[in-house]
């Protein structure tokens, strides 16, 4: 019978992309992590991971094992949480997936407050793009995540509203303006971020009847900023991603004003601890 340590170690390797990262996360030696995964593979009788230069890839058996391992650990967490609730406390683990630019400003203060209220809950923060976060929620790899509204099919609590801002090279003619319209941005080569915020401003562009001339796509905010700074295009990014933005970039108000509404969502399999965190976020909106 697989042990809890084997299952946790296997999932840590999967979620963190390799044995070295998993060993740091679990505070175990890399040989200990390798032994735990190897022993799980021996017990199940099939290889679960394909070792590659740039990380690991799940085998077909590994995909099924990961799904069942998450369910098994979730049930264990629920058992501990429900018994703890009978004693008047909440325990367990929250795996919270956050957008990189929201972690420090929006998420960390909420996690500090939650940890003070529920010291028995272990908190694990993952960072990824919005498409990744939605996948993690669907797969049960994350219990809760920060996403944009609307979020059909998910239970959510409003977190914050963030302005989207126009971003142009510092020496660009539009940098002399206090505000920049979609019409003006549409006349320039456009850099579209693929991390999730594009759906917000592309919808507004459609509403005002302009088509942005997408010349580049980049998955990370830093990559978008690097392309803009080089003078190859303009873009639109969330205000929180532009705090302490690099030199060579001009940030201006966007016309019409465009808002990205962020929320915390929980997965269908979320346990009591994640739902308690969601309740805290929801209460914040009513305070």
Automatic annotation (TrEMBL):
Pfam families: HTH_1, LysR_substrate. Gene3D superfamilies: 3.40.190.290, Winged helix-like DNA-binding domain superfamily/Winged helix DNA-binding domain. The keyword Nucleotide-binding does not apply. Keywords: Activator, DNA-binding, Transcription, Transcription regulation. Residues 6-59 form the HTH lysR-type domain. PROSITE patterns: HTH_LYSR (PS50931). One of its GO terms (cellular component) is protein-DNA complex. GO terms for molecular function: DNA binding; DNA-binding transcription factor activity. Required for the induction the katG gene for catalase. Involved in the response to hydrogen peroxide. PANTHER family: HTH-TYPE TRANSCRIPTIONAL REGULATOR CYNR, TRANSCRIPTIONAL DUAL REGULATOR HCAR-RELATED. Belongs to the LysR transcriptional regulatory family. This is Probable hydrogen peroxide-inducible genes activator. The lineage of its organism: Bacteria, Bacillati, Actinomycetota, Actinomycetes, Mycobacteriales.
